[in-house]
Amino acid sequence: MSKTTTDLLYLVTIVTFILALRFLSSPKRARQGNLLGAAGMALAIGVTLAQDGLENYGWIALAMAIGTVIGVVGARSVKMTAMPQMVALFNGVGGGAVALIALAEFHNLTPLPGELAAEESVTILLSALIGSISFSGSLIAFAKLQELLSGRPIVYPGQQFVNGAVLLVAVVVGGMIVAGAEGDALVVALIAAALLFGVLFVLPIGGADMPVVISLLNAFTGIAASAAGFLLHNNVLIVAGALVGASGTLLTLMMGRAMNRSIANVLFGAFGSVTSGGGPAAVEDGRSVRSTTPEDLAIMLAYARRVVFVPGYGLAVAQAQHDVRALAEQLEAKGVGVLYGIHPVAGRMPGHMNVLLAEANVPYDQLKEMDEINPELPQTDVVVILGANDVVNPAARSDPGSPIYGMPIIDVDRAGTVVVVKRSLSPGFAGIDNPLFYDPKTSMLFADAKKALEDVGAALKEL
Fold it and tell me: Which residue numbers in the chain have pLDDT < 70?
């Protein structure tokens, strides 16, 4: 294939990636954006395989077959509750692939001492360093989300000093590469130090901050891929990596703003390492909660003018997205207005609740972001919280001593009545007690979200 044809087809691929990203910004066109991006990637792979001088097609086909099977099986079999883990894992694989490319190119470009150009050594350094950090950091994020490791920050004395020392070692080795030192062992040492730093970097970050971490690591992978594109002189890889890096960075900053916390505080603040008293302790302190039943909740909903559902991770765990949509349709048949309040960091990854409800075909115009739903809540009769906790905690607004003070929340306590569907009084992923549970206008429905919604729906049919 001629270079002109290759460049033209790569340009088409770049355009599809840009359009795909544009479509993904709207829920109504997200599916088309995903398909367009996949088509662009298929075209890029096809053009790459058609290049002159490519060898070992058998090994390439075998690797593609294995990857295809893993991707298809993973995407079709992983439950929505495990989607954040899959995103973290796939993102990490991308970073690891870039690090291996850097190692291979360093080996190929240095057959004799002094033959590695400065720009090539810099791109190898960046690809290996950032890709390795993304790989190991994403694996730790996966382990925390999968509960293979504790979701709480893992800290120890002198941690920042150790992290800085490990990063310094990686930078020094990288400097040796840029200075012209030879030997594959140098890149291996650089990758090893970066892998260790990635682990140490994510360990002290609490589970409540995982959405931000996933977004940041995704940006890391994009930057590493873009650097690898410069190394391979591949425009598609440069542009695709830049798009991922830029969008991941912007999303990280937006999520930090949604939590009213700086990115430095998220990464180095060990948020959630100190836990306030949980439910049982709170009851012993003299506070009490009001319980309700599915039948009572059905009556409240049936005679309401407006109902707002606030989904959280508990809804995803229970796989109750279809049940909440079915209940909403019952209420709408009775003339009740239904909306959904979506917090930017609800769930375990960016947009988790949007994806969950879209899977259940909830109308897009009923999904209201935090800034849209909060003005509606004082005129709302009933708010039903489905497994959310930290994102509706009024301590963020009223308690200066709370670790989440200043974090924007969904102001559910300003509605007429609040019903919390939760299996227990245990704190959320941030490990912080929620005074909303003890508010006089709050009732607790202790149940799995799916079972609770099914029972409420059944009781509603009897009215």
Answer: 80, 110-116, 207-208, 260-261, 265-287, 428-431
In one-letter notation, the amino acid at residue 317 is V
Phi/psi at 81 (5° precision): -65, -30
CA-wise closest residue to 236 among 3, 24, 6? 6
Q: What pLDDT does 277 receive? A: 39
Q: What token pair was written down for 24?
A: 């993904």
Residue 12 in tokens: 């088409």
Residue 133 host element (H or E): helix 118-145
296 catalytic per annotation: no
Among residues 386, 372, 411, the alpha carbon closest in space to that of 327 is found at: 386
- Show Cβ contacts of residue 253 under 8 Å, excluding neighbours closer than 6 positions: 263
Q: Give the model's pLDDT for residue 286.
A: 56
Residues 423, 428, 434, 440: what is their CA dihedral angle, to the nearest 10 degrees? -30
Contact 322, 354 (CB under 8 A): no
Rounded-to-integer distance, Cα 172 and Cα 169, Å: 5
In sequence order, what are the beta bridge partners of 340? 309, 367
Task: Decide: 264 and 205 in contact? Cβ < 8 Å.
Answer: no
Catalytic member of 323, 390, 411, 433? 390
Eight-state DSSP code of residue 168: H
* First-residue to last-residue Cα distance in the chain: 70
* pLDDT at 394 (0 to 100): 92
Work out the angle between the directed axes of helices 159-178 and 118-145 (0-180°, nearest 10): 150
pLDDT in tens, 72-87: 888 888 876 777 888 8
Token pair, residue 295, equals: 């039948």
pTM recorded for the entire structure: 0.77
**Best CA proximity match to 92, nearest among 130, 137, 44, 60:** 137
Structure confidence at residue 52 (pLDDT):
80
